[in-house]
Amino acid sequence: MKVTTLDALRSWLDTVVGEYDVVAPRDVDGHVLYRPVATSGEIVFSYERPELSVKDYLLPATEVLLRVEKRGGEVTVEENLADRGQVIFGVRPCDAHGPATIDALFLEQEPPDTYYSHHRARTVLIGMACPQLWEGCFCTSVGGAPDDATHLDVLLRRVDGGFAVDTVTEKGAKLIAGLCVEERDGAPDAPTTEGEAVPVMPPDAWRPLFGDNIWMRHGERCLSCRICTYVCPTCRCFDVADRVVEQGAGITRIERIRVWDACTSTNYRRAAGGHNSRPTKPVRLRNRSFCKFRYYPEDYGPLGCVGCGRCIVSCPVDIDITEVLQDVAERSGR
Amino acid sequence: MLVNEALAQQVRDQARELLEGGRVDCVIGYETGPRGGARPAFIYDAADVTRLIWNQACVHNLVTYLHDKKKPPRRGEQPPRVAVVAKPCDSRAVNVLLAEGQIERERVFVIGVTCEGLEDEEGAALPRCLRCADRVPVVYDVLLGEPPEVSPVEDGYGDLAGVEEMGASERLAFWLREFDRCIRCYACRQVCPGCYCTTCMFERDDGLWIDIGIEVSQKHLFHLGRALHLAGRCVECDECERVCPMDIPLSLLNRRLTREMEELYGHRAGREEVLTPLLFELGEEGSPI
Ligand code: SF4
Ligand code: SF4
Ligand code: SF4
Ligand code: SF4
Ligand code: SF4
Fold it and tell me: Is A144 in the pocket of ligand 2 (CB under 6 A)?
């Protein structure tokens, strides 16, 4: 195996920040979050699962798509596309499965999403394997693993005195060409993956359960907040709005922005005239679950859940998607 | 963790009696969640009352769910009659909602429970419990449990000292740093019994007062606006702070206004069934407007 030391990794990262936008796990007032960093000193190398996924850097919570300027009779429209490359460091394996899931809709369907594909193309994902499953994690039940290299460009795994380096893609190889590594015997320890497998029923098993009381039982205590959708690496609903940012003296500047939306929120389905076709918490929770395990896989291929467990640990009223999955399995009697 | 099994049994018995006697359609209480903590439970069938628990992890303010029960489940039917398990702090929210005409007294059965104080997941007493002067619900249809023997505390607003010592610019910097972490999930608003406007003025989807973009200026406006709308209405249940995934110390904002309301008007939300002095009714005779 190829091994690098923490010091070598740090000095290499300090060269990368000059050339790329670098995002890495950072301790933000006690919360480990993927955040932009200016030096390797800001990065935490020992962490569990960052509380939010890397989604924000590929499909930002708020992104300016277009800048429109009207000067007298003249209108100019400018597309906002970042020109630097982006490196996301310390990506947990499930967080690489997240964008791969979104790709099935945003890249592989026609027409591809301009802004998302731009971020995807400019981004290199450097993974950091998990030594174990953290609270709520069930990646191993949905096609992932704590040390899964799929969908990453480089995978790092902790070994004595440093990190084992696995190059996964061409893009990754190019990026880490300057990283100091040495050849060593042995292999990294396998992660511990104890815990019961969560049963995941195929999409067609869900159909008869649309009217089941599972949704009332779990959904009635839901708060209709947006935590579960915002922390989720695969939830990708968005909204688009125009806003005036400057107006006066013959000049108007407008931005077209895209922001995250959440199907769990009260007014997600509100239409003109006030009609809401998903008026209650249980039907909204049902939609989120069906989206992940029936609609998305049926329509685009991958499951809409990578098993990161974030929604489970962050729901304030203990709505647990693995409990829903257990109930679905039980009800469908397979 | 203190598990008051006798009190839990009383809650179950009460729930059974109410459901079997047809007095209510649903009992909102607590059950054990998949990872051992407590979580809200909705019981419709007397056979399910065994799910109900009572212990020091029962932190949620269940009064907030009464808003979901204001409408009939199907058109043409009556709204359900609901019983709700209410701790002393939660019961103050019942008074707020009654005063504001949000719930009908005869449709809600309040199962009041006395409270010895709650604990967080690590077993530490909750800050609001350390300063709690209530201990017995302020409104109930039945009172379960003995009033605990705890020496009455004077709320000195010690929690506010840190921010109040800061100068204005330092304080602004403190709050902007906190708000910067906010992901605008609106959980704080959604959980709050006092936040029930059909369209929140600070809802990003509405766009009249607030921008849909998640810039810190927008979050700043949301938080200050929400706190102001709760002045004299916040019952200090600290649910907003508990549910916040980013640990934003919202109680410091709310309690600043609680203190202001107490000093200016001698008003503490929900202790009695009265409106906040900052709200008034439009009327004819005798009304300020
Ligand atoms: S499931 Fe939990 S996190 Fe998701 S909207 Fe409901 S209360 Fe919020
Ligand atoms: S649904 Fe929950 S567990 Fe699945 S990917 Fe989303 S946040 Fe993670
Ligand atoms: S779900 Fe798997 S890959 Fe993701 S943080 Fe947990 S153990 Fe790591
Ligand atoms: S719960 Fe916390 S993160 Fe969510 S909107 Fe409120 S303050 Fe922001
Ligand atoms: S503002 Fe917070 S503490 Fe006050 S009533 Fe609402 S949820 Fe409870």
Answer: no
